[in-house]
Amino acid sequence: MQHFDLNQLQWNNTVREQLLGQGLARLPHAVLLVGPAGVGKTAFSEQLAALLLCESMSPELSACDQCQACRWLDAGNHPDFRRVAPDGDEEPEEGVVEKTKKRSAANIKIDQIRELEAFVFVGSHRDGNRVVLITEADAMNPAAANALLKILEEPPSSVYFILVSSKTKSLLPTIRSRCRVIPFGPPDAAAAAAWLAGAGLEKQAARYLNLAGGAPMRVAQWKEQGQLAPIDALVESLVSPPADPIALAARWDGLLKGDGVFRMENLVEGVQRWLFDLAQERLAGEVRYHGGWPRPKGVQNLNPNALLAAWREINQCRRSARHPLNQLLFLENLAAHFLRALRPVA
Ligand SMILES: [Zn+2]
Question: What residue spans of the chain are helical by DSSP H?
Fold first, then answer.
């Protein structure tokens, strides 16, 4: 398990204080960490698990990183720790397109929760706490969620449940009501920039942060996945697009031919956000997603109604964005919608 330095996640100190301010003994036995992706919920949940299992905790409530328990946890084989995540390779991400078969297969299944019963109701190996960490708790299918509810009804007192979710709407309300809900939000811009600088993203940090809804760890994930270059190239194609939709579509097609990290739904979302920002800029004089990026010339001559109409038309296309029958044709259609919206007010 990767350990994060608490100082790197300073913006979550209020949450820490809320949960641990009265000591570990007052920690609720089931907590649900909620908030947008990329603001540090998972890192925090891992710290909390380490804290509950560490056998030589510091008075400031940090795991020691040295004891047998910490080393086991690091190596992923602590006998009193269980991590439950969706069964499948594909990481759920901010949804652009409706669920596909593959996506819906990546959920937490009832068997995974049933396996917990033995863990929870049989005694601890180390005579201490036991911790169940459920990341992406919203990925539990209804049967799994109901099975978990039963366990949460009367867990032994040394068992702690930490649930993490970025999509709380998909969680059963009964699960929420059994947990202490701890909301996480994005850090302020300075803290986010400082964290990104630590992750090797100094200069461009601000512009990606806006695209990521202020969530620094999402930006770091994009960097790791090699998404930043295609994002740059897409924005470049939108700032000064060729006049011909076929030429624009060909450029986009090139972006999608990378190693699969930048997908059609990312592209469609990027175009939509760009249109949204152009309309915002015309109507309100500000942008939401592309602050810090070069602005195109002549925005003041654009027709906001045409921009919003194109945004809506492209919204209609989103359903088929994941698996268009003919990718190039799909892109040409998208490019035509986009370029039409850029015609200046007559
Ligand atoms: Zn320790």
Answer: 13-20, 41-53, 68-75, 101-105, 110-121, 142-153, 173-178, 189-198, 205-211, 216-225, 228-239, 245-256, 264-284, 304-317, 327-341
> Phi/psi at 32 (nearest 5 deg)?
-125, 115
DSSP label of 93? -
CATH architecture of 226-341: Up-down Bundle (1.20)
Q: Which two tokens stand for residue 220?
A: 């770091």
Report the CATH number of the 6-183 domain.
3.40.50.300
Instruction: Find the 46 Cα to ligand 1 centroid distance in Å.
Output: 13
State pLDDT tens for residues 264-299: 989 999 999 999 999 999 999 999 999 889 999 889
CA of 61 to the centre of ligand 1 (A): 11
Classify residue 320 by burial, with Cβ atoms within 10 Å: 0-12, 13-18, 19+. Answer: middle
